[in-house]
Amino acid sequence: MSESTKKQDKGTTKKKNEGAPKATTAAPKNEPTTTPSTTTTKAAPSKEAKANVKKDAPVTAPSTNNDSNNNNATAPTTTTAAPTTSASVVSTPPSSVATPATSAPTTVDAKKKEPKQAPQRDKGRGLVKYVQSGDTLTVIHLERNQQGPPTEREITLSNINAPKLGRRKPKKKDDQKEKEKEQESEGTEQKDKRDEDEPFAWASKEFLRKLAINQPVTYTIEYKDPKSGKEYGVVFIQTEKNKEENLARLIVKNGWAKVRRGKDIKPDVDDLIQDEEEASKAGKGIHNKDKDAIEQSKRKLKQVDPTVLFNQFKGKPQQAIVEQVLSGSTLRITLVPSLQTVQLFLSGVECPSLEYNKGYKPYSREAKFFTEHHLLNRDITVMLEGVDKYNFYGTVSIAGSTNIFSEELLKNGLAEYVEWSGQRTAFADKLKAAEKEAQAAKKRIWANYVETKPLSRQEEKKQLKPGKEIFGRVVKIINGGAVKVVDANDREYDVYFSSIKIPRQGNTVQLDDEKRQEAVERTLAWESKEYTRKRLIAQKVRCVLDYVRPEVPRQDQEPLPERPFYSVYLDKNNIAVELVEHGLAEAQQHRGTEPRSRDYEFILFAEQRAKKAEKGKWAPQDKVSILRISDLTAKLNPNKPTEQAKLTQLTNLRTKLYASMKRGGRQRGIVETYSLLAK
Q1: Structural domains in the chain (count)
Q2: Across-strand partners of 379?
Q3: Cα(365)–Cα(387) distance, integer angstroms
């Protein structure tokens, strides 16, 4: 402390305690203003500076963390370090006085030479959570008595550039179909730069992933882009020899990145340049000039057909890498060695969902962090067990381990067992036992769990639970995807087929000016109903409950009632699969965690076969034979303007039909409802 500051302190009283004077700092002359400085130059206090000491409030050194959201107890600060930091504390004010976080004043000379003070370097330490590319990673800070997920920081390594990974942008279905037609007509594949990586981009990322994932590191943030908020810094990792090495130098030495050169080359950049020259001479990594090796290093990011991929890998253990954790039970994985990226839902479990617009559900973030901590960027073994139009369902275990990860989620009370997807896995019994264990211990989502009393057989029969079976006879065809069944006790059930969409019947009366598309839809709806009638009417069937759709509210209309959906079997054949295979229905698109038919994969395969054969609704519309169908029993309201034209046409049709039947005598027909005369 200078003599002037001591005299100033003696002149102030203890009660007022206006604070200690501050040393002024100036950036070194040789250092550009845009580069952070690590040295301090103390200027002699001028008269203006002494005057400012009396006016200003006491000041402490600013926080070393640029991002207030990333403050961590484990990250070391520079305010208590040796006085070589850019902003060192000169004196500490008494604890009873508030210390506003304001910056230290500068002298007039310093302001003229350096209008902006060089930003202070931010240091920290943590574990590598995720590797985005060959030069970017995410570090998390784990603290003692951690409450909830820890804070994290994305850091791009300074002074190097790794090859960029390709990213396919989502395209509209119509655009994709047009592109496929163009490629078929030309007989060649059109290349899109977005569909592939830069040479050796995947290998560069893999080098950093295998080297750094889940490893302790220390870092220093050198620069933060004010526009993008991207942080650039130096990261050090502990090697096998218990020495800290610069990650950027390790990457460049092995040839997986290039050095970014500027006007003023610093000593650390000079070291990187030497490393790059050595790697280039040895032909390492991206410096490999072999054309075949360059072409093979690029991933082709083509659209993945889930059903084709599922047929290829079903029931076979596959190696994969977890690229992203979307929720505790939803992953994006890359299959190895094909390098195809797919979305995977864990079979038999469902974690609390992350509804960002409605707020987080209890333990949803904890479940996501639990999965990230154990699986993100790790090598795993996956068994594909189910598929829908876009996603896969399977069982995951960490590579080299036999432990099922879904079981760990259930044991820790971070997920619940799901019957519809659990029946696809061979580990259903283990998953159920793990859930009961968590319920008994009242862990996390089961904190308020109360064990229910066992139900009697009669009560169980009344409950609509997946797997419940109905044996009966079909007495009525409601439409192509729904029938009425009567069991041995004369109880009637409206049975709707699971996971299919049938063509719409549309208007009960076909108008003369009806569009061809509507006429085709009505024709297919009739053919769908006829197929179901010929297959099922008066037949004994087995109906297995798959799921129950809850009541659906609607604006200005009555809500759709609760409705159960079944898989209906005649002998061993699922009628829904048959309808789809003949092009008389299509597979229902389900969301990721929605329940579905137990034979959903067979429904998807049947739809593929129907599309290839151009059957039913997949046939060109000009080839469909239109049937004129009208329901003469329809009840229309003459007071409604929209139904007046239909009523007039319906009256004319009834008159024509009566005259035709009177002239023709005996006519052929179909009984819409079948009554049981004998059991």
Answers
A1: 4
A2: 321
A3: 26
CB 551 within 8 A of CB 557: no
Strands 231-238 and 152-157: parallel
- What is d(CA 601, CA 310) in angstroms, rounded to the nearest whole number? 9
Could you tell me if 423 and 319 lie in one domain?
yes
CATH of the domain at 353: 2.40.50.90
Residue 158 near residue 232 (C-beta atoms within 8 A): yes
Angle among Cα 597, 601, 607 to the nearest 5 degrees reads 100
The answer as to whether 678 is a domain residue is no
Whole-angstrom Cα distance, residue 251 to residue 209?
11
User: 159 and 198: one domain?
Assistant: yes
Strands (E), 412-562: 416-417, 469-479, 482-487, 492-497, 500-501, 540-549, 552-554, 557-560
312 and 331 part of one domain: yes
HEC letters along 413-460: CCCEECHHHHCCCCCHHHHHHHHHHHHHHCCHHHCCCCCCCCCCHHHH
Which range marks the domain in which residue 84 is found?
Answer: 1-119
653 part of a folded domain: no
Q: What pLDDT score does 659 carry?
A: 79
pLDDT averaged per 10 residues, the chain (length 679): 46 43 40 39 44 39 38 37 35 36 44 49 90 96 75 94 81 46 44 73 96 94 91 90 89 96 73 94 94 90 84 91 96 92 94 76 92 95 91 91 93 94 91 95 94 71 80 94 93 94 73 69 90 94 93 84 94 95 94 88 93 92 77 70 73 77 76 53
Q: How far apart are CA 349 and CA 544, in angstroms?
A: 22
Q: Cα–Cα distance between 642 and 638 in angstroms, integer?
A: 9
Residue 591 confidence (pLDDT): 82
Confidence at residue 207, expressed as pLDDT on a 0 to 100 scale: 97
Same domain, residue pair 422 and 317: yes
Report the chain's terminal Cα–Cα distance, integer Å.
106
Tokens of 574: 């699922």
Q: What is the pLDDT of residue 129?
A: 95
Report the phi/psi class of residue 433: left, alpha or beta, with left for phi > 0 and alpha for psi in -120 to 50: alpha
328 and 392 within one domain:
yes
pTM of the model: 0.69
Both tokens assigned to 368 = 């996501």
**Both 476 and 619 in a single domain?**
yes
Classify residue 391 as exposed, middle or buried by CB count within 10 Å of its CB (0-12, 13-18, 19+): middle
SS3 of residue 264 by DSSP: coil
Question: Would you list the DSSP string of 277-292?
Answer: HHHHHHT-GGG---HH
